[in-house]
Amino acid sequence: MSNIVLHFSKNDLSKVKDYYEKYITKVPPNSLFLAKINNVTVTAYKSGKVMFQGDHAQQEAKKWNAPKTENSSTNRSKASVNEHDYQPPESLFTHAHIGTDEAGTGDYFGPITVSAVYVPEEKIAMLKAMGITDSKTLTDENIARLAKEIVRENIPYTLLTLDNTKYNKLQKKGWNQGKMKAMLHQHAIQKLLTKIDCIPIHGILIDQFCQPPSFLKHIGQEGLKLEKNTFFMTKAESYSTSVAAASIIARAKFVKEMDRMSNQYGFPIPKGASNKVDEAAAYFIKKNGIEALSQVAKMHFANTDKALRYVKR
């Protein structure tokens, strides 16, 4: 079965809807319509994407002259990938695979969250059409909505959260953030493999945050081994729907935790590591004490010393 996704302008999308009007069978959530014609399912989204699924999807899609087409033969620009032996094959992106990504690593406040997501081949085009892309390009509201959509579609995933108390203990123990992330990614992968059991996959793609030899060293120190057919790639969320979905689930959890902390402590706790964060940390220390800060922040960040200087003023 073929999956083709075309992109239309707002005006052209209206023409598409008019053409398929009498073939519309329902309107799924977050879509414009779903129509069935010539053994092809046509699903249109308000974003301008229209997905054609079925044995004759190619022929049906050819009726339209859209500015951009996505399918297995799409020419992609090469990703910015470090040269190593763990680069993914181009075919991975159009086949069932696991992708992993994390959130919260550059933020002073809040935990680190890591997700691993398995996307079967038949759902890749659908998730793309829904707008599953790098979470960094999405608003918090859209991230929360898309995360719910991923869950609603019964996409298998795992989600791990390293809270700040545990993070600071590991850091004092000598673990750097790279090792923490490597262990979280590897555990998320192993838990997901157990969850999907014997479902065949074409590989595992980790959104690369360190050189593969460093990743291998980190997990090896704790008695873990890299799973077969594991690949690393920078900016992987721009190529892999599985990684993009993982980035959304991880980010949604991070944002939820930040909101929870803000509600718990009675003021909006900012994301990132800017001067605004320094001021917020200083306010937190004055209100709750330095010991309590270790429960909500990554204490080894330079923001801690800056916040203490604010407090002494």
TrEMBL record:
Q: What biological-process GO terms show up in the record?
A: DNA replication, removal of RNA primer; mismatch repair
Q: What is its main location?
A: cytoplasm
| Transmembrane annotation, as ranges | none
Residues recorded as binding a divalent metal cation, renumbered to this chain, are 101-102, 207
Q: Which UniProt keywords apply?
A: Cytoplasm, Endonuclease, Hydrolase, Magnesium, Metal-binding, Nuclease
Gene Ontology molecular function: any one: magnesium ion binding
Please note every region of biased composition (Polar residues). Answer: 68-80
- Identify the stretch(es) annotated as Disordered: 56-85
What this protein catalyses is: Endonucleolytic cleavage to 5'-phosphomonoester
Q: Which residues form the RNase H type-2 domain?
A: 95-313
Per its UniProt record, the required cofactor names are: Mn(2+); Mg(2+)
Known EC number = 3.1.26.4
Q: What class of enzyme is it?
A: hydrolase
Which HAMAP family does this entry report, sorted A to Z? RNase_HIII (MF_00053)
* Assigned protein family: Belongs to the RNase HII family. RnhC subfamily.
What is the protein name stated in its UniProt record?
Ribonuclease HIII
Q: Which organism is it from?
A: Gracilibacillus salitolerans
